[in-house]
Here is the input.
Amino acid sequence: MSQRFEIANWNQYVMRWHEPHRQLEPLEVEIEAVDQALQALSDARILPHIRYDQEKFQAHRLAVRQCFDIPWTAITPRMQRLLYAINAITQPATMVAVGIFCGNTFISNAGAAIGPGACYPADLLVGLEIRSAEATRARRNITTLSHHGVTVRILAEDAKPWLERLERTIDLLYLDPDGPPGTGKSIYLEMLDAAQHALRPGSLVLAHNSVNAARQLADYLAYVRDPANFSESVNLVIDDQGLEVSLV
Ligand SMILES: C[S@@+](CC[C@H](N)C(=O)[O-])C[C@H]1O[C@@H](n2cnc3c(N)ncnc32)[C@H](O)[C@@H]1O
Here is the structure.
């Protein structure tokens, strides 16, 4: 089944890309918006519940604000909270994030397992970034946080062959790469194909830009919304970027 969940006035909630930590609305409004999105995932039986530790999330947000070098980001405060909450609730042993740029998207997912927002013991967290300078920046950023014994790998690699070679299960796959000029976000389906053998029933696949890049992602979105391929898929329209959450 595929579904769409929309927050009222989502298109007026727009990120200021060069002000990564700016609060865009009162905190209680942000919390309520994300709770509604989590409830939509729970109603679709993608999440078992919608509870996550608010204080740990705030500690995570503060650490990223204080320690990370983020030149720009399209991750809104709502999206940062949503990604953290999905990871905190589902507790993936192995999380793989593709196209992590400076590491902000990686830590939005991984912050549920490392740093001051950690709330469960993960096994392996991997961030893949094809541009070596950005992978270096991401590694530098992530090194500022305690890893609590979790294995963390930030790799300066093309994610596609890396995924094809992978010999373990991925519990949560986060997709955010953009390909060479002209292809843009249309490479998500290639990445999903490369990772398919590592997914198992219960694995989650999160795809950023399900709203603003919907046209480039048409083949990907059609694939994950086909019940022959994924048991559930929900398009969370909480900001002008969007997140498609798909359950194998
Ligand atoms: C536009 S950024 C994502 C930014 C993110 N949405 C944010 O707001 O922080 C996408 C990243 O994917 C990376 N990328 C593109 N193709 C890739 C590939 N094949 N493997 C790994 N990373 C890739 C790019 O170098 C780029 O840094």
The chain has one domain: 2-247. The chain has a mean pLDDT of 96. The longest strand covers residues 232-237. Helices lie at 27-43, 54-67, 77-90, 104-110, 132-143, 159-165, 188-195, 218-224.
